[in-house]
Write a structure and sequence with these properties.
145 residues, mainly alpha, Arc Repressor Mutant, subunit A, 3-stranded antiparallel β-sheet
Length: 145
């Protein structure tokens, strides 16, 4: 197997492992889309509108609403009406979900941190360049299809 094939295989293996990651006990029934949405909200600079939620998890607006209803029902998200335009609804994490996702991210990124500790700063820059190029190529492929 050549280097390119081995890198592709390992990236796919990482994706598979990420799909198998679980949140802490009690949240086993959350879908990948639920966790992705909460992760996106965790890193977002501002709350998302319902339209942005739908786009983030790649579903229709009614499906996004059902997802938010479900997560709101178990205390992980809250809807807030925009102060200037009450028709606009923003979705935000609760303190409970912010803590949950923060702990999940810390736990799930620990293997990456451990692996990067084996590299010099120069090598880390090369790894970073690779991941940026990979993400950019994936976006370009998506746009072209």
């Amino acid at each position: 197997m050549d280097v390119n094939q081995e890198i592709a295989r390992l990236v796919n293996e990482l994706v598979d492992l990420a799909r198998k990651e679980k949140l802490d006990a009690g949240y086993d029934n959350l879908t990948i889309a639920n966790v992705r949405l909460m992760g996106h909200l965790f890193f977002a600079e501002s709350p998302l509108t319902m339209r942005e939620v739908a786009s983030t998890i790649d579903v229709s607006l009614p499906s996004a609403s059902v997802t938010v209803d479900r997560l709101e029902g178990i205390g992980l998200l809250v809807r807030q009406h925009d102060k200037q335009d009450r028709r606009v609804v923003h979705v935000v994490l609760t303190n409970k979900s912010r803590k949950l996702i923060g702990e999940h991210i810390k736990k799930s990124t620990q293997p990456l941190k451990d692996a990067l500790n084996e590299f010099s700063d120069t090598e880390k820059e090369i790894v970073l360049r690779f991941f940026r190029a990979h993400v950019n190529a994936a976006y370009k492929q998506l746009e072209d299809s």
